[in-house]
Write a structure and sequence with these properties.
This protein has 349 residues and is α+β, with helices and mostly antiparallel strands. It contains eleven helices and twelve strands. It folds into two domains: 141 residues, 60s Ribosomal Protein L30, Chain: A (2-Layer Sandwich), CATH 3.30.1330.10; 166 residues, PurM-like C-terminal domain (Phosphoribosyl-aminoimidazole Synthetase, Chain A, domain 2, Alpha-Beta Complex), CATH 3.90.650.
Length: 349
């Protein structure tokens, strides 16, 4: 067989294996900083290993997977790559948390047009930070260099989380009763949903990420790239202190009604008063600039409340106190009543 021409190599085709090896070396410290008791082995194996704790009588594995959507385009444009990894973890661990599970493992998938080790290290540093906030271990992942599918500088992210719960303590909303109270935990802005609409509004107004919303001190890029809040430690802390949480929802795409309605039993209705909400100014800015109707805003964005808990009325005070002490801003959103519509919204934003 004749010797191939110099350009007939994997590297010349756009895949640099050596760059991948260097990226693994750069992320090793961040990845291992997330390890928790139960992690077996170290970075670089074919699979991640975890020994289940022996103190659970009837353990149930709980899984979740998600991405960051078009928020990655903002990270690409600004070059700020260390926060979307936090978003990636948050989107899955907050979902797993709604069942009452403790996130224990996380895996990430990063697809790029051209693998630059230093940029990959920034992305994974964000993932590791999200894992540390959630108390779960980053036990594996994949860095895929895909020339032809992505251009240099382009990337996408996906994440997968495994949580662990005792079967008898699973929370699925079936215990929700008339008279229960609906509490909301404040968001950190848009989190990771609705960015296609946000970007459309910006384009229609000729605004870039280095510009500012009216009366804002920070740039639009800084406002939009704030990472998604991770509610794991505060909510699990309330559960461990004996708060009988009967239902939870992570408010993402679909808004309050679309997500909270998934856990409200038939025949009951979460009756929420919008006047109790503190809507962050960036939502108002996008709504005004785009002349976006209220119902579209409410069905697209979290509007300042990204996590909801339903507790008995007698536990509202202690739940609010514990969550506040854990660093959350807690809002009384409404109550559970009899009704055919699972979520009703009254009042004005």
């Amino acid at each position: 067989m004749s010797k191939p021409a110099d350009d007939l190599t994997y590297r010349a085709a756009g895949v640099d294996v050596a760059a991948g090896d260097e990226a693994v070396r750069l992320i090793k410290k961040d990845v291992e900083s997330t390890y928790i008791p139960g992690v077996m082995g170290s970075l670089g194996g074919f699979a991640g290993l975890f020994e289940l704790p022996k103190d659970l009588k009837d353990p149930i594995l709980v899984t979740g997977t998600d991405g960051v959507g078009t928020k990655v385009l903002l990270a690409q444009e600004t070059g700020k790559l260390d926060t979307v990894g936090i978003d990636l973890v948050a989107m899955s661990v907050n979902d797993v948390l709604t069942i009452g599970a403790r996130p224990i493992l996380f895996l990430d998938y990063v697809a790029v047009g051209r693998l630059v080790p230093e940029e990959m290290a920034q992305l994974v540093a964000g993932v590791a930070e999200g894992c540390r906030q959630a108390g779960c271990a980053l036990v594996g992942g994949e860095m895929a260099e895909m020339p032809g599918l992505y251009d240099p500088g382009e990337f996408d992210l996906a994440g997968f989380c495994v949580g662990l719960a005792e079967r008898s303590r699973l929370i699925d909303g079936s215990g929700i009763e008339e008279g229960d109270v609906v509490l909301g935990l404040a968001s950190n802005g848009f989190h990771s949903n609705g960015f296609s609409l946000v970007r459309k509004v910006l384009r229609a107004n000729g605004l870039g990420l280095d510009d500012r919303f009216p009366h804002f001190y920070e740039t639009i890029g800084e406002t939009l790239l704030k990472p998604t809040r991770i509610y794991v430690r505060s909510v699990l802390g309330a559960l461990e202190q004996g708060v009988p949480i009967r239902g939870m929802a992570h408010i993402t795409g679909g808004g309050m009604a679309g997500n909270l309605g998934r856990v409200i039993p038939e025949g009951l209705s979460a009756r929420l008063n919008l006047s109790n909400w503190k809507v962050p100014p960036e939502f108002h800015a996008v709504q005004i600039l785009g002349d976006v109707p209220d119902d579209e805003m409410l069905s697209t964005f979290n509007m300042g409340v990204a996590y909801v808990l339903i507790v008995p009325a007698t536990f509202e005070g202690v739940a609010a106190r514990l969550l506040t002490e854990a660093g959350e801003e807690v809002l009384h959103l409404g109550e559970i009543a009899r009704g055919s519509e699972r979520v009703t919204l009254s009042g004005l934003l």
